[in-house]
Write a structure and sequence with these properties.
The protein is α/β, with parallel strands linked by helices. It is built from 15 helices and 22 strands. It has two domains: about 260 residues, Aldehyde Dehydrogenase, Chain A, domain 1 (3-Layer(aba) Sandwich), CATH 3.40.605.10; about 190 residues, Aldehyde Dehydrogenase, Chain A, domain 2 (3-Layer(aba) Sandwich).
Length: about 475
């Protein structure tokens, strides 16, 4: 698997956000480099379409096994170039292996159906069916927060369904994607089926998404960037996961200990840089004080520091600029009347786990995705108020609700505008085989291996006239 080497000698430095040390460099590709990659992918798409199902499965399983054999190598890279602690990074490697193995299994399930043409008068002598065919070349643009598994969620289904794919990883965390390509090279995937191109999105991004040879764009990132891409792609498939402002509802009958534990973990995993991260918690007023006190106490016990230490619970943000943005948002909310219960301290790229309450609705942090270690606690009168406020943002990825009342759980299921609702769990739950995506500003289409394959294929109809 070849990583595009740029013609010029410009390189991008990959920094460890913890101390800004350089851990590697990658090429900064030009438009000319991308044109060559796309031309190669045209050949790769022809090769991929001819790969038998058993060969696709074999390659995916071999790649998964290679990563398993080099588990710690992959985990260390994820942690060094990103924000995750070494424990969080190991968890991501494990999920990546699962994603590839699920992709191998789903490759055998790309089925079609027979079509009863005789349902239409005059077509009694016609029989036929449809089957799924690959769409060609897929462009995948991935973010920094899950630099291995989110790439696998695009590459695995693409290979399983017989497509070629060009991956542009985040310039902050490209090395994990390159290691994923290494696994596929070791597994025997033919050249040009998978390409990794690194570079500045301002230079190569528009060409990548708008080039007529690209038949699908799969993007994971921010809403603003997603909207720009949507205006540029032209006539092609588009799959987008654009983040959230995830709500969790805690009713008075809930298991408060479980709710606190899950919500704290959901808020501060990967320093809060998680599209499923808990951002808003709506707590029924009768148990608000009890929940809030426990939540703050557990938050204060979080150990922030060196990502590579086993005891560390949370590392830095991806860079100091992001930490400053979060600091600005928190300070704005406090200036408008929000109460800071704990946290609110920045040290370079580190930002302490932060809990706010009484946050005014016109504060930026109340309606935008914070993508950082900040959670907002609200006291609500009842479930109806919680649902109304949960829905009152331009996002709808996932949500959680804690209750022992099935009737109330189903009320939330039917009324909440989200792509997924977790009962007695926080919003931060996902397995790699489930459909994953949201409504409103949270995106278009669904990921999750089986569902990504549906996006990456299209039906071809075959009809025999036997008369």
């Amino acid at each position: 698997m070849k990583v595009q080497e740029a013609n010029n000698f410009t390189r991008i430095e990959v920094l460890n956000p913890q101390d800004n040390s350089i851990i590697g460099t990658v090429p900064s590709a030009t438009k000319e480099d991308l044109h060559r990659i796309i031309e190669g992918a045209r050949e790769g798409a022809k090769t991929a379409a001819k790969m038998t199902v058993h060969f696709r499965m074999e390659v995916l399983n071999k790649a998964a096994n290679y990563i398993a054999e080099n588990h710690e190598k992959y985990a260390i890279m994820i942690s060094r170039e990103g924000s995750k602690t070494i424990r969080e990074a190991r968890s991501e490697v494990k999920r990546c292996i699962q994603t590839l193995k699920i992709s191998a299994e789903e490759a055998r399930r790309i089925n079609g159906e027979t079509i009863p043409f005789s349902q239409s008068e005059g077509n009694e002598n016609r029989v036929g069916y449809y089957y799924k065919v690959p769409i060609g070349i897929i462009a995948a643009i991935t973010p920094f927060n899950d630099p291995l598994n989110l790439v696998a969620h695009k590459v695995g289904p693409a290979i399983a369904s017989g497509n070629a794919i060009i991956v542009k990883p985040s310039s902050a965390t490209p090395l994990s994607a390159i290691l994923l390509a290494e696994a596929f090279e070791n597994a025997g995937l033919p050249e040009k089926v998978l390409s990794i191109i690194t570079g500045n999105g301002n230079v190569i991004g528009d060409l990548l998404v708008s080039h007529p040879a690209i038949r699908m764009v799969s993007f994971t990132g921010g809403l603003e960037t997603g909207e720009k891409i949507a205006h540029k792609v032209g006539l092609k498939k588009l799959s987008m996961e654009l983040g959230s402002n995830s709500p969790v509802i805690v009713l008075k009958d809930a298991d408060l200990e479980a709710a606190v534990k899950a919500s704290v973990s959901g808020a501060f995993y990967a320093a809060g840089q998680n599209c499923l991260g808990v951002q808003r918690v709506f707590i029924e007023e009768e148990v608000f004080d009890t929940f809030s006190d426990s939540f703050v106490e557990m938050t204060k016990r979080y150990k922030v520091g060196d990502k590579m230490l086993e005891a560390t619970d949370m590392g830095p943000l991806i860079n100091e600029k992001e930490a400053i943005r979060i600091e600005t948002w928190v300070n704005e909310a406090v200036s408008k009347g929000a109460k800071l219960l704990t946290g609110g301290m920045r040290d370079g790229a580190f930002y302490s786990p932060t809990v706010l309450t009484e946050v005014p609705s016109n504060s930026v942090i109340a309606y935008e995705e914070v993508f950082g270690p900040v959670v907002l606690l609200y006291s609500i009168a009842d479930l109806d108020e919680a649902i109304e406020k949960s829905n009152d943002v331009n996002y709808g990825l996932q949500a959680g609700i804690f209750t022992k009342d099935l009737e109330k759980a189903f009320a939330a299921i039917h009324k909440m505008d989200v792509g997924g609702l977790m009962i007695n769990d926080s919003s931060d739950f996902r397995i790699d085989s489930m459909p994953f995506g949201g409504v409103k500003g949270s995106g278009l289409g669904r990921e999750g291996v089986k569902f990504a394959i549906q996006e990456m294929t299209e039906p071809k109809v075959v009809c025999f006239n036997l008369k």
